Task: structure prediction
Amino acid sequence: MKRMDRKLLFPGICLCLIALAPTAPAQDRGMIRISGAGLLSDVVEGYAAVYKKEAPNCSVTVTGATTGIGFQRLVNGESDIAMMTRAATAEETKSAAAKGISLDSKYIGQIGLAVITNARNAVNELTMDQLAAIFKGEVTNWSQVGGPGEPIKVTIRAVPETGAGVL
Result:
């Protein structure tokens, strides 16, 4: 079977962890609830396993969802830490402050981003500037980046649900 797609890899998407300063420290309650970007779940599960060894009387639950859902759970008191693949938006920061929540972020790593095109597309490589222009809607036709005269169809998940679309 012939493969019909091609991947263009771009490193450097930042991952963030946004933490809540709860009224009663989560460790004192004997549990820490972490929710948000599913992309971070495995990494955070690893951190949780190390923490559980150091604090065996504290349970840690990691629930993957989306960045937006994780933030909502944090603000609604359903989670102690939100896993996010982007910084909190101004609106999110304002909604947290309105509920007396102090936010702090911790950078935990980078990932690669795969951009998948049809194998018949003549474009084999894009610069970061070209990729940014495509996702911002400034470049809308493959001919603008050395490809055929065909429209570019970009599919991403909308902010604030995910970090996608934030360049």
